[in-house]
Amino acid sequence: MRAVLKTGRYLALFLLVCFFLMPVYALLVTALKDPASVSVVRMWELPSTFSLENFRIVWPDLQEGFVNSALLAVPASLISAMLGAANGFVLSKWRFPGADFAFPLILFGMFIPYQAILIPMYRTMQSANLVGGLDGLIIVHVIYGLPITTLIFRSYFTGLSDEVIEAAKVDGAGMLRTFFYVALPIAPPAFAVALIWQFTSAWNDFLFGVLLTSREFWPITVALNNIAGGQTVPFNQAMASALLASLPTLLVYVLLGRFFMRGLMAGALKG
Amino acid sequence: MRRTSSKARRRLRAWGPGLLLVSPSLILLGIFVYGFLGWNVRVSFTSWRGQTPVYDWVGTRNYSELFDNERFQIDVRNLAVFTFVFIGGSLLLGFLMAMLLEKGVRFEAFFRSVFLFPMAISFIATAIIWRWLLNNGSGESTAGLNKLFENIGLGFLFSDWHKTPSSWAIAAIALPAGWALSGYVMALFLAGLRAVPEELKEAARVDGAPERKVFWHVVRPMLLPVLMSAVVILAHISMKTFDLFYAIDQGNLRIDTPALYMWFTTFQPGFFARGATIATLLLFGIAAVIVPYIWWSVRTERRK
Predict the structure, then answer these.
(1) How high is the ipTM of this complex?
(2) How much is the pLDDT for A247?
(3) CA dist., res. A131 & res. A265, Å (int)
(4) What is the span of the domain harbouring residue B137?
């Protein structure tokens, strides 16, 4: 009976793995096929020839988006992580009167439907001359990233014992000194979580990118949708583009999955 | 009098630097979240159409027009169908995966990674892969999942997916959405299951309770908060998601939702007032699930 249960469990897990990897299989075998031998009706067949030709064809169209997304996601995640660290520290260890009131208000910002700020945000960016390039998009990603980075650091610093803070106070250290010399040195794990989360959301964002940038500054998602979103684009090119566009975040996930998982928990307010 | 002012000064010295450090963020969020939300609500009471803003006052006309609007009615029904199938499916799948992994299996880290990796991929890339899998060609041009079904002898599962004329067409999109997010549900449940103290379960077992009773009376009540988190997170995602639908089949009204309608009506023909009205309704829909959730989370934290 036990053995049957155990076999059943592994069988179920195997079927689930098949379900989750099935799109990846289709993606890989298609992207690696010789363009001449690609056909949608044969998408499940293994390639008889191996070729990187598809990537060569689509890369020139994706290259710019790739660079734009890197130029946007790196500063956006760095800045919002730093601001989030400061906010998280103050809201957990240097609570000013009203801090407990401010925190839920900050949190709400990460759940709002962005449609409900789109029109005012677009008008504001327009009048500030920030539509078209990457600057405006970076600013928007930093600001709307603040709630989650604040939450990540606040949960992290809550675990820091109050005695350490008190000791620093007794030694005459002010808020800034305590933040820089006591809190920040122990914060690298929280930085990893916040940076990974922010990098992934900025890289994967479409709505802000498509609204705020002009063609030459399109982030990768907008470029990808433009290349591979049409019904007329060859199947193999669509798959190769989707694969290339997803590589950076997949790489981050594979290498730093542990921190990614913690970001997920924070996103559900389960710091 | 002097005492209070020196007290105020002391308070300022104590809290001032902290307040100063967070004030840029608070001000920015104040403007970009609350200011803009309010502004958007204001736009929903105007007749603004076209590129020049108009700030007149038409009362609730946009709302009553929207409720009579056929496309909006379809969108709301679509959203209801999608939310139901997407949440139900993701919860079942996520819970199943968590239960399978809970007792510890070999290669657990591998399984977890496989179930979660779609979360690292953009909805645009997800949509581009799945639009080819949800192909509805038949006969000679059978492709995608239907072809796979045919290959493994499950041809009777053939489906037109989101292209079927049925009003359930949008349910097909729950497949890529669930593929992307059920791993998240699994992670939540797995954390919840593992937070149940072993002693509690052991105590029940010592009292002679069979495993299913241990689960029902000890584990299940402790999972309710997790279930609630998962439902709230999935519900708000289903209301605001735009790019997944957009990239799978742009312009297919069978998979149209309020979030898409807002985009198309605002930024293509320039019906800003109508777009703002849809967005306001979305905001209230999401606030209805999120505000109690935040309130509850903050309160639970304070009790600890």
Answers:
(1) 0.93
(2) 95
(3) 34
(4) 78-268
